[in-house]
Amino acid sequence: MNTTETDSNRLSDKHDVYFNEDYLYFGDAVHPPEVSDRHTDAIWKILALAQGNPVLELGCGYGRITNRLAQKGARVTGLDISPVLLKKARTDAAESGLDVEYVLGDMRSLPWRDQFDAAFLWYLTFGYFGDADNERVLRESASSLRKGGRLLIDHINIFAVPNHGAPICYVAQRSDDLRIDMMSTEVLTGRGHCDRLIVRNGCIRRTHLYFRLYGFAEFARMLRSAGFESVDAYGEEGAAFTSDGPRLVIVARK
Ligand SMILES: C[S@@+](CC[C@H](N)C(=O)[O-])C[C@H]1O[C@@H](n2cnc3c(N)ncnc32)[C@H](O)[C@@H]1O
Q: In this structure, are residues 143 and 137 in contact, taking their beta carbons and an 8 Å threshold?
């Protein structure tokens, strides 16, 4: 295994290609509206949000959560690197008469200081870079939060990822079109890969996403060093953490 930190940072340059119009097209097939409603309720509860709280979503995608949080009364800002996804987020917000601030930007360099009551990265949105840049995302998040603010990260639970070598396939379908994700992990580096095959209108496209998988102890070390005072672990959608559950949900307080 000879992948280096530099290689993994280079892979991050592909995100605006991976999170593209195809990603948007399969959005509702992967997350039907009732699932997005449930995710929004879980985030509201885990972060103990109240009406009027300023909240930041990093990697907000096409705004399926951001717009719903605004509907529930939070003052929401969403940041994403994909212009295509942000356009859809803004259009949906405008059509529903929602006041949401959408910002095109990179989560490694944020323009806010001591501003938000809460921030979050939902649905495998943390870990896209090499370790140094991933830690930078945590430091930037800490700087954007006011004292006492909370950061939530929804991450894969590495203890529950099978390591037998064969990729695990997930298929999303919309009419005759398919999105096939082949997920695999490298045990020694803690890296995950998603090789994505899009079959749409008779054409096939391939993309690849790299992500780093962290355990709770690594998160706790990185978050404390980024300026957070406490770090807690939960399971999927805020349930109790279990070592065989699919998710590790981190809540850190500044
Ligand atoms: C897995 S999607 C999750 C989207 C959203 N959180 C959700 O639950 O629907 C990850 C998002 O992170 C965004 N992203 C990737 N790299 C980014 C970066 N460097 N800065 C900001 N956003 C980024 C992608 O464009 C994509 O919208």
A: no
**CB of 85 shorter than 6 A to ligand 1:** yes
Query: Which atom of ligand 1 lies closest to the CA of 121?
Result: 6
Q: Is 81 in the pocket of ligand 1 (CB under 6 A)?
A: yes
Percent of the chain beyond pLDDT 90?
83
Angle at 132 between CA 82 and CA 136, to 5 degrees: 60
pLDDT above 70 for 120: yes
pLDDT, position 17: 66
Task: Count CB atoms within 10 A of the CB of residue 13.
Answer: 8
**Residue ranges in 54-179 assigned as alpha helix (H):** 66-71, 83-95, 131-144
Render pLDDT for 46-62 as a digit per residue (tens, 0 to 9). Answer: 999 999 999 999 999 99
Residue type, 204: I
Q: Is 134 in the pocket of ligand 1 (CB under 6 A)?
A: no
Residue ranges of domains in the chain, CATH in brackets: 5-158+214-253 (3.40.50.150)
Residues 190 and 218: their CA atoms lie apart, in Å, by 11
Predicted TM-score of the model (pTM):
0.93
